[in-house]
Amino acid sequence: MRHLSGSLRMKEKLWTKDFWAITIVSFIIFFVFYVLLTLLPIYIADRLHASADKAGLLVTCFLAAAIVIRPFAGQWVGKYSNKKILVLSSLAFLVITALYPVCHSIESLLFIRVLHGITFGVITTVKGTISARLIPASRRGEGISFFSLAMGLAMVVGPWIGLNMARWNAFTAAFWLCSAVAALGIVLSLIVTVPPVIRHADGSKPNLGFAAMFDRAALPFALVTFFMTFSYAGVSAFLALYARELDLMAAASNFLLCYAIFLMICRTFTGNICDKKRAEICCFPMPVGFYHRSGGAGLHQWQHHNDYFRRSHRYRLRFGHAGFPDANYQLG
Fold it and tell me: Which residues does the UniProt record annotate as the domain Major facilitator superfamily (MFS) profile (predicted)?
């Protein structure tokens, strides 16, 4: 009987219409984010004649707004309809994305980045909550693996398109491309059926106070994720300017393609490892490999720069986004 119950759980369907939709929404949001992250430094340098430090300020404003709004977004997700929050935040995300072509000063661009960061913080919170409800418990590791793969692919496709659009000076076209993709996100948000909120046995909802949103046990995993994504954001924010300075825009594109290949290879098995064995098997080796390769990348800067970009696929293979999130989300 226990064997039969286990077999039935293993047959729980993962790739439903709703899971497909929310996964693609996740890809869309991060695709727009990474296209703009790569494109804007060159845009402000060429069109607004701003210094490189302003590129860092654009990233800081965006992410600071996204971080500040997340605790409030968590409250809203627990109190109100997740479907409405998803649709409204997707709509706001589209409207703000469409405003980039009319920003002709650093001040207006910074203001738009703050607004964009707020919508990004809300939509990433609600989509993560919805996806967690859609993934069967028996396939949690596999589901998280494929769901986070959408974000991982966006981390590659977005900068790759951003770099190439910057090479062609097609800034306005890139902004409208992001707007069109964001519009598709609204359509997908409308077709997602959100599972009901899980209630306690007495019919009450879970505690939604701020104290309930923070767990000390999750702090180590949160810190590791912070440092790894902090490193990647630093690379992505200035990759375009650095590659253009070296006249290696094409090599930088190959750098991202290598990442995509090895990311997809790792994602095919890390989720199953987390489900069938232990998440720690993936969780602990990945950060070690990441810091080893990122340190090695810094030590090899004296080498020929084109060779540096070619060698970087090994750094990408061991980078935590290839396998670390699957385990980290489960343990956290």
Answer: 18-332
Query: What Rg, from alpha-carbon coordinates, does the chain have?
Result: 20
**Structural domains in the chain plus CATH codes:** 16-192+218-331 (1.20.1250.20)
- Distance (Å, rounded) from C-alpha 315 to C-alpha 294? 6
Contacts of 201 (CB under 8 A, 6+ apart): none
pLDDT at 200: 52
* Mean pLDDT, rounded, for 3-20: 70
Cα(212)–Cα(268) distance, rounded to whole angstroms? 34
Task: Give the whole-angstrom CA distance, residue 118 versus residue 53.
Answer: 22
Max mean pLDDT among 147-156, 242-251, 284-293 falls in 147-156
How many residues are given for the chain? 332
Tokens describing residue 166 = 């910057």
Q: Quote the longest CA-to-CA distance of the chain.
A: 70
